[in-house]
Amino acid sequence: IIFKMTVLLYFLINLSYFIPHITGNVDNADVNSRDVQYAYIVGKVYPPDEQFGNSWQQETYVHLAGGLQKGFIREDGSFVFTNVPPGSYIVSVTNPRYIYEPVRVEINSKGKIRARKVNHIQTSQIIQLPYPLKMRPISQTRYFQVREQWRIIDFLFNPMVLMMVLPLLLVMVLPRMMNDPEARKEMKQIQNFTNYDMPEMSEMITSFFGGGNQPKPRSSKQTKKENFLTVIIV
C-alpha cells in the first residue's frame, strides 16, 4: 500500500508540473495565430486551345512553393490556395504536354498580395503581373530533339565546298579583270616598279660571298643596248 501511494504521489506531482507548460504553449500559439493574417492565392489556368477539351484539366496541377501545397483546377480553370501565411512563394503549373511560366507571389504581414515575374538572375528587377493570377502556356513540351533537315545554305557554307568553289571563281574572274585596260595598266606599273633598278641574283650572290670590290649594278639602258648589239651581230 505504501508503495502504491508513493507512485501515485509521484505521478500527481509530475502531472501538476507539466499541465501549466502545456496550457501556456497552447495559449501562446493561439495568440500568435491571431496576429498572423493568412491569405488566399487565387488564379486561373488557361488551356492551350479553346477546343482542346477537358482532358487537359485531368493532367494539370498547380503547385505552391515547390510542393508545399498541391491543388487541382476546376472546370473553368480556376484554383485557390487557402491559409497561406505571409512570405514569398512561387506558383507553378505542371502539365505533361505544355509549359507554363511560373509566377512569384509575395504576401506581406497585412495580407496584401503582389504578383511578379520570376527572375533568378536579376532578383532586384521587378516586373509586376496582374492579380488574380492568369497562367497561360508558353510552348509545347518537347521530349525529343528535332532532326535537322537538309538546307542548301549549310551545303554552300561547308568548308570543303568553299575550298573547291573559290578557286574556280578566281579562274573565271581573273581573265575578265585582265581584259580591262585599266587593270592592265596597273599590273604593268606594278611589274615595272618591282623590276626597276633591281640587280640580278647572280651578281648579288657573287658580291655577298666574294666580298671586296662589288660590281656596279647595270642600268636598264645598258642592258637594252647590249641586247640590241647581240641581236645585230647574230
The run of helices and strands is HEHEEEEEEEEEEHHHHH
Q: What are the segments in which pLDDT stays under 50 over at least 5 consecutive residues?
A: 17-33, 228-234
Measured by DSSP, the beta-strand proportion falls in: 15-25%
Query: What profile does the largest beta sheet have?
Result: 6 strands, antiparallel
Q: What is the number of strand segments?
A: 11
Shape: elongated
CATH class type of the largest domain: Mainly Beta
The CATH topology name of the largest domain reads: Immunoglobulin-like
Taking the alpha carbons of the first and last residues, their distance comes to 158 Å
Mean pLDDT: 72
Q: Structural class per helix/strand content?
A: alpha+beta
- How many domain modules? 2
| Count of alpha and pi helical runs | 7
CATH architecture tag of the largest domain:
Sandwich
Task: Note down, in words, how this protein is organized.
The protein has 234 residues and is α+β, with helices and mostly antiparallel strands. It has helices at 2-35, 55-59, 152-156, 159-179, 181-195, 201-210, 220-233, and strands spanning 39-45, 61-64, 69-71, 78-84, 87-94, 98-100, 103-107, 113-117, 128-129, 133-135, 137-140. The N and C termini lie far apart (158 Å). It is found in: Membrane. The chain crosses the membrane at residues 155-175.
